[in-house]
Amino acid sequence: MKQLIESFTRQLRHALEIGERAAVTFSGPKYNNVVLAGMGGSGICSSILQAYVADKLKVPVVVQKSYTMPAFVGPDTLVIASSFSGNTEETLSVVRQAMKAEATVAFVTSGGEMLRTAQANSMPHIVIPSDAGQPRACLGFTLVQQLYLLHYAGLLDDAFKTELGQSINLLEEQAGSIKVQASALANSLRGRLPILYACDALAPVALRFQQQLNTNAKQLAHVNVLPEASHNEVEGWQQPAELFGKLAVLYIKTGYDHPRAQLRMALARPVLERQVQDVLEVEAMGATLLEQMLYLIHLFDWVSLYLAGLNKVDPNTTDNINYLKVELSKV
């Protein structure tokens, strides 16, 4: 896992090369809506993409992390299905329903049933390397190809390419400081349940961090989003008081947060500080939202790796996930 995290910028560069070389054409009608289908590492890429394009696309984008397809899907829908293995059962279920609804289906995968389906039906697809390592460490490959598919479909301009290049430069420039910051944060979260708060723009980044803590550090975490959390969860910081000593609050901040959401976060801080020892903060670096997202994703990946070391667990294993997959395959 350490090598995969260290090679993140190389992965992004390789992903750009793959996207540029991709021979993808779309012959369908003008798309009135987009559905991004995926689970786990692929699904979080869809959530990040949805947040990034929220102010760029003129059509609604829905992320689908389930077995079912929304009823509105039809011939004017673009469905982008992502699965590293190409065999994710929930995503395959969505693909079959989308094809039945005569939607345009495009794929990001390394192989499996999805690649066979795409090739057999001459459907748009981009193939990512099958030897890239753990699927959850392939965010760069999947996210970048999703961006390219939106671009080739005529929905997204090519500004993302420049932003990706800037993101790579930022991560390379800050490589040393990122590790130092990640190590300090990991030590602050050791032995505690991280409570992660972010505003809307960074909600999927916070969720990605939770997932990396789960899978790499084998540690639970909780995520909530501002401003919504200030309408309900803030009131819950009263019970059970005996647990508060085992909690660690982390504010994940960006200049893209809405000013009123920032104010709510600031006003909630004294409430939290009455119950926990420290309210930690991490602020994104970068000139664009994409740069800031990728900066935090890389930082938090290092945190999860350092926490795995502190927790004395193997970040490469996923025994509980594998158990569920085996048992599901029997039914």
UniProtKB/TrEMBL annotation:
<dbReference type="InterPro" id="IPR019490">
    <property type="entry name" value="Glu6P/Mann6P_isomerase_C"/>
</dbReference>
<dbReference type="GO" id="GO:0004347">
    <property type="term" value="F:glucose-6-phosphate isomerase activity"/>
</dbReference>
<dbReference type="GO" id="GO:1901135">
    <property type="term" value="P:carbohydrate derivative metabolic process"/>
</dbReference>
<dbReference type="Pfam" id="PF10432">
    <property type="entry name" value="bact-PGI_C"/>
</dbReference>
<dbReference type="Pfam" id="PF01380">
    <property type="entry name" value="SIS"/>
</dbReference>
<dbReference type="GO" id="GO:0005975">
    <property type="term" value="P:carbohydrate metabolic process"/>
</dbReference>
<dbReference type="GO" id="GO:0004476">
    <property type="term" value="F:mannose-6-phosphate isomerase activity"/>
</dbReference>
<feature type="domain" description="SIS">
    <location>
        <begin position="22"/>
        <end position="170"/>
    </location>
</feature>
<comment type="similarity">
    <text>Belongs to the PGI/PMI family.</text>
</comment>
<dbReference type="InterPro" id="IPR046348">
    <property type="entry name" value="SIS_dom_sf"/>
</dbReference>
<dbReference type="InterPro" id="IPR035484">
    <property type="entry name" value="SIS_PGI/PMI_1"/>
</dbReference>
<dbReference type="GO" id="GO:0097367">
    <property type="term" value="F:carbohydrate derivative binding"/>
</dbReference>
<keyword id="KW-0413">Isomerase</keyword>
<protein>
    <recommendedName>
        <fullName>SIS domain-containing protein</fullName>
    </recommendedName>
</protein>
<dbReference type="InterPro" id="IPR001347">
    <property type="entry name" value="SIS_dom"/>
</dbReference>
